Request: fold
Amino acid sequence: MGSIRVLVEGDLRQAVGFGQEELAAIEAVYPLISEGVGSMPPIMRVDVPESNGEIDIKTAYLPGYSGIAVKVSAGFFDNPSKGLPSLGGLMMVFDAETGVPRSALFDNGYLTDLRTGLAGAVAARYLARADSTSAALLGAGAQARYQLEALTLVRSIERAKVWARQPHRAVEFATEMTERLGFAVEPASSIEDAVDGAQILVTTTPSTEPLVDTSMLHAGLHVTAVGSDAETKQEISPGVVSAADRFVCDSIAQSSRLGELRTALASGFDIGSVAELGQVIAGTVPGRTSDTEVTICDLTGTGAQDTAIASLAVERSARAGVGTAIET
Amino acid sequence: MGSIRVLVEGDLRQAVGFGQEELAAIEAVYPLISEGVGSMPPIMRVDVPESNGEIDIKTAYLPGYSGIAVKVSAGFFDNPSKGLPSLGGLMMVFDAETGVPRSALFDNGYLTDLRTGLAGAVAARYLARADSTSAALLGAGAQARYQLEALTLVRSIERAKVWARQPHRAVEFATEMTERLGFAVEPASSIEDAVDGAQILVTTTPSTEPLVDTSMLHAGLHVTAVGSDAETKQEISPGVVSAADRFVCDSIAQSSRLGELRTALASGFDIGSVAELGQVIAGTVPGRTSDTEVTICDLTGTGAQDTAIASLAVERSARAGVGTAIET
Reply:
């Protein structure tokens, strides 16, 4: 029938990273989502209670992109006791003109980490103060690393502080990222300490209770909330959502169900005031309009981003002849 | 991270076919679906209007099965003008205990054809007269071939008639299947001619208007409706559904939306009288109770069947060392 290109993590790290073309590819999807161009069905979910696991499937068709990615994410939370990581999955890419399977991407989560980091950069580009130099991160895992590095694509970051529930992880993060990025990254003694003096706060934890409350806000702060992507998760209090001058999200439908809008709406927040990031990018809704506003962007992650980054990875890998071709 | 087994159509034809174990694996899923055991989300669909295409995704977790299949089916209806088949896709199989990707199945639709054929056999086992010897088929494509061969697993079929919109295709079908199955298969001059004298009628067309009306029914007939799997399709008239002594389907949720129940319900048919095949298999609802009843089983196809056949195919291929292992 043809051949399919199999790409593994090493191939994909070679193909795509923190480049301007990748950033532009991710930025371009948000107006398409918000305008309802293309087709992005709700996330498909399969529960596997016997193994404390779940499988989520995301996909989207976007006109003008060469591929349609179908991403299968597996979260099996008893895996560590078996010596396996909790999170896994893969992406399949189909030709957008013929539906023919083109590529299987065994990325070990790399493409998701990358596109999520790039989404944070897009949010900061449109919502953080133009003169932002200081970042704060909650959480010190892989995604916090991606978020901080991505910010350097769009703002002249000169220092950062990181808070983690386990202080030694913040210390490790600070050491590693100071060396990687060439500016001072320090562990924070508390969330307040991290946020104090930062123009950009990025939350990347799996918290199920608010970490950020209104007492921590200050004029000019932009918050990107990345962690919440499930009905049980939450990083910022409903009061913070209400107190912000502007609240935007990648997808109102998803944020209302899986993101920070869930508890905010339950607390009476007016959904009529919510805009999508794509509307801000398209210019139909203003982003930040002064240096004193408090802004929030909630990112739940979309199949459209997967289609964008996977299409680019497959195109570049094909041109470079990277990967293994399998005759089907 | 591990290795994944890539299986292509030839491997899969070697691994699974019309055997009793395959039949038992498919039969076993229906009671699980009907009892709500496991997890089978609604079909996920992505429309690709620019290419006259669509992608459908089915999946299911079933306790006791080693794998979870995620099937991506692509239908791109401008493909023939590009020298490509309209239908394509693949299945991915994940370990049901860890979520780890185990296998990529590039089956060119073989596993779907097989499990759909086997589903027809299960329907006939529980609903067709035990002494059925004569079958009628509407449609003369690949699925009609699978349906007829599958019937021979559960009934002593001695003759068959086939009707197709293009008569030459019925003639080709008759010649080929007579040779393959060793009994007389004849082309029918009309739908009436095909059904007359048959105890089992299987409809396998993509028709969007009813082909079977009440005038064609006779005492003792069982009808398995396989073709309708979309909001636009229909093979049997609402009157036929109402006239039957028993109407069952693989999934009430799917049949109401994509199958023969769609127009029947719109015409006032009482959903309260509808049972699922799994209830008949489990014995909680009677199947055929006399040789004169008219029975109908509507099959729309489920992710649970995909998980059942794919799990078996992957287990057998692993034991036999078939396929290509890719290090991920």
